[in-house]
């Protein structure tokens, strides 16, 4: 049972993710961040998920997962921003950038830029957890486009026959780059594909943080009790195009989303709607709301300052951490 304090904490994290990514979009428009794939509008999914995760659980984030990583306790926003800015003080010493964010010490596994590859990798992590009897589970995030890759079948099949402690969560934000899910997916709901593996599949409102929390909690419980994987489809929408920044897709000739569609989805803003709910229930006050937004904005500005004041990686370190014992001729 979530307490009022839990709900306030979840709201604050959603505000943090929103403000952090909006700032990164701004930085991207200034040329200070490259290849940013923003998840603005999807904040309820990572926040609901991390509230359900235990300290023993691993999390494989998707390629649109900078804000996903920021949601987990133990992740340093300053180091995360430094990584996205390509600075040596980042989690991967500035070499990963937005496409390969990780925070191993917080059990946040790195994004894999090859679409869908996180699915079998997560099965491997869950296999290790099962063999070591850690009592933990792994949750894997991926998009609707990744659900059409061959490794989706391979990963879910292996996870099912070995009854691995893994949860697969599809962030269905309606588009794979510019291809609508309604065109590319053969079923109405991606969760229906779970039937082919004999595992539970559920479609939820990905803009409802409490619905996400409940679905992930139940799936993790099943996984840890040895009942195998669950496939969760969270319906959501990314406010920006495939690449960050208003108009970024249009600049590349990708005019594929009607403005009316975007505005209609913005009415389902997960942050604003959760805020209204908490205010209506008397859990969140105007004073507390102001305190949270002021605190978050300060955190974000400090993270930007840290990133911009950090050095770029030294060219002599280009091959460090890439190969083991690399010897150049």
From TrEMBL:
GO biological process, one term: pyruvate decarboxylation to acetyl-CoA
Protein name: TPP-dependent acetoin dehydrogenase alpha-subunit
PANTHER family reported in the protein's UniProt record: PYRUVATE DEHYDROGENASE E1 COMPONENT SUBUNIT ALPHA, PYRUVATE DEHYDROGENASE E1 COMPONENT, ALPHA SUBUNIT BACTERIAL AND ORGANELLAR
SUPFAM superfamilies, alphabetized: Thiamin diphosphate-binding fold (THDP-binding) (SSF52518)
Organism: Coprothermobacter proteolyticus (strain ATCC 35245 / DSM 5265 / OCM 4 / BT)
Keyword annotations of the record: Oxidoreductase, Thiamine pyrophosphate
Keyword Transmembrane in annotation: no
Any one GO MF annotation of this record: pyruvate dehydrogenase (acetyl-transferring) activity
Dehydrogenase E1 component domain location: 13-315
Cofactor(s) the protein requires to work: thiamine diphosphate
